[in-house]
């Protein structure tokens, strides 16, 4: 499989019964940040001492459906994550930010995982970052770090499990 760019369907519309589209304190989310365009909340099953998710309010399906034009969204999500890590006092070397790649994701609404390292026990295997070789931005992995995702999209490729 390659990381060539394929035309994507329109995935920026309300989706019936998407739990993340309804992220709010009233709906049981532990919100730590919100503005007009983004929401950040504590993961309901944390894999680390600090495990947060940052999502766009507008429904964006997954990291596989985004393109070069979405880099500003990823950059904003990363900036929110950096500010939240700073507020929590997590040193830069103990931070991991990234996305699960379908079909290894749990919710089909783009969500950036913010994890303070180390991750807990066997859960560390859920978030494997794989560095790319031979001109690739990432290796074989079901998790892509946000900077890898941005680099792949800058090359007008799509993000997948196989090396990109």
Automatic annotation (TrEMBL):
InterPro entries: Histidine_triad_HIT, HIT-like, HIT-like_sf. The active site is at 113 (tele-amp-histidine intermediate). GO terms for molecular function: hydrolase activity; nucleotide binding. The keyword Kinase does not apply. Residues 19-125 form the HIT domain. Pfam families: DcpS_C. This is HIT-like protein.
């Amino acid at each position: 499989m390659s990381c060539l760019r394929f035309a994507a369907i329109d995935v920026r519309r309300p989706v019936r019964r998407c739990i993340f589209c309804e992220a709010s304190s009233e709906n049981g989310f532990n919100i730590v940040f919100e503005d007009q365009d983004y929401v950040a909340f504590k993961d309901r099953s944390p894999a680390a001492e600090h495990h947060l998710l940052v999502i766009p309010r507008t429904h964006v399906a997954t990291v596989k459906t985004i393109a070069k034009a979405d880099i500003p969204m990823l950059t904003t999500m990363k900036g929110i994550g950096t500010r939240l890590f700073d507020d929590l006092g997590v040193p830069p070397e103990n931070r991991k930010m990234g996305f699960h790649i379908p079909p290894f994701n749990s919710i089909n609404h783009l969500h950036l995982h913010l994890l303070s390292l180390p991750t807990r026990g066997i859960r560390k295997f859920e978030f494997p970052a794989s560095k790319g070789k031979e001109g690739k931005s990432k290796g074989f992995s079901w998790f892509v770090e946000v900077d890898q995702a941005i680099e792949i999209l800058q090359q007008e490729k799509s993000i997948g499990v196989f090396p990109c």
